[in-house]
Amino acid sequence: MAVRAARRTTLSALLEFSMRSRLAARSTRLVLTTVAAAALTATATGAALAAVGGQSTAHAVEQACGTNDLTFKVTEKTQAGGYLLVTAKARPGITCYLDGTIPSASFGSSADSEVAPAEQGMTENVKLSGATAAYAGMNPKTTNGDYGTEYERLFLAVAGDEDNAVTLRLPSPTLIDKPVSTNWHANPADAVPFSG
Fold it and tell me: What 3-state class would DSSP assign to 149?
């Protein structure tokens, strides 16, 4: 309760301060905004410490992988009736963690070309750096028969980073119909999208 009151008081003071600063020169407003941001950060830090009994619980920040942090490669595999193996590696100088969820992927704009999960739930995050890789297996066709649409490209992004999707050329034209993908895994053997 005291934390909320402190935040409210700080925010009220900042808003009043901001209204008065409209009359100030632009450079003065910039300095005042920086000071106000620092005050909010200090209030939030104090609130966090108060919430855990005054004990610091700071941990090293782990960077989540964004699509632009990674390079991707697609290969064809014959196991489990045939699937596409997507390999992700961190770009040079980057260390990041890839969530154990499915990649955001589609082969085209049709709903039948959007990749759905082959696994339930999340798996362990994969730390990528240097030669370490993460793997996701995609079964391009989960339906019976010859129905489907042939595609030559895969649109891929880290889940949550779809604005930075990349386009990958498939090893060969591939028949697609209701594709599924495994989550990202550290071991390629865990990324085989077995059916049923």
Answer: strand
Residue with tokens 């495994």: 182
Q: Where are the beta strands (DSSP E) in the chain?
A: 70-77, 83-90, 96-100, 104-106, 116-117, 123-128, 133-139, 149-157, 166-176, 180-181
Contacts 24+ apart (CB under 8 A), 152-157: 153/107, 154/74, 154/84, 154/86, 154/105, 154/106, 154/107, 155/105, 155/106, 155/107, 155/108, 156/67, 156/72, 156/86, 156/103, 156/104, 156/105, 157/67, 157/103, 157/104, 157/105
Neighbours of 86 (CB within 10 A): 24
Is the separation of the CB atoms in 111 and 176 below 8 Å?
no
* pLDDT tens-digit map of 51-92: 444 444 444 456 999 999 999 999 999 988 899 999 999 999
17: Cβ–Cβ under 8 A, 6 or more apart, which residues?
A: 32, 36
CB contact set of 27 (below 8 Å; sequence gap of 6+) = none
Q: Is 23 helix (H, G, I), strand (E, B) or coil?
A: coil
pLDDT tens, residue by residue, 24-51: 343 433 333 343 444 434 434 343 334 4
Cα–Cα distance, 144 to 47 (Å, whole number): 57
